[in-house]
Design a protein that fits this description.
Blueprint (H helix, E strand, L loop, with lengths): L1 H4 L6 E5 L4 H12 L3 E6 L2 H13 L4 E5 L5 H15 L4 E3 L16 H21 L6 H19 L2
Parallel strand pairs: 1-2, 1-4, 2-3
């Protein structure tokens, strides 16, 4: 019954940071519900292994190297996916950074900006770069995200 409500057959989902951990689990979930998943991360060999693993289970999958901090990689990910799959229905910006290890009260401001702000900014830049048209609900979600981020930006 749940699978019927979340049927993703014929949908294309791009997941960044999908070579392991949460990103791989997200990609697996989309694949299990019928989506063609495009797994990406900065480690080309790792995402190729995930693609092969998913295909061995009968899922639709492809992989592309993409370091989300690199503009050319992001453009290639989107353009290549549209070229090969015809469209993108879902974009999950799971990739992130962890530039600092240690107590949070000793974290340099630059590391905090990179770790906390980059994922939100990637979503916004992705929308701008590829002229993605949002539904009213998606627009509200993005607006809420920006409102939540405003106090963080005021710290800098």
């Amino acid at each position: 019954m749940i699978k019927e409500k979340f049927n993703l057959n014929g949908k294309v989902a791009v997941i960044t940071g999908a070579s392991k951990g949460i990103g791989k689990a997200i990609a697996l979930g989309f694949a299990e519900f019928g989506a063609h998943v495009v797994v990406s991360s900065r480690d080309e060999e790792a995402v190729k292994n995930v693609e092969d693993e998913f295909k061995s289970k009968g899922f639709l999958a492809s992989s592309l190297k993409c370091h989300v901090g690199n503009n050319e990689d992001r453009i290639n990910l989107i353009e290549n996916t549209i070229k090969t799959q015809g469209r993108i229905d879902v974009l999950v910006n799971n990739a992130g950074t962890n530039p600092y290890f240690g107590p949070i009260h000793k974290m340099p401001v630059e590391a905090y900006q990179k770790e906390v702000c980059l994922p939100a900014l990637l979503s916004i830049f992705g929308l701008q770069e590829y002229e993605v048209e949002l539904t009213e609900q998606q627009y509200l979600e993005q607006s809420m995200l920006l409102q939540l981020m405003e106090p963080i930006y005021q710290l800098f």
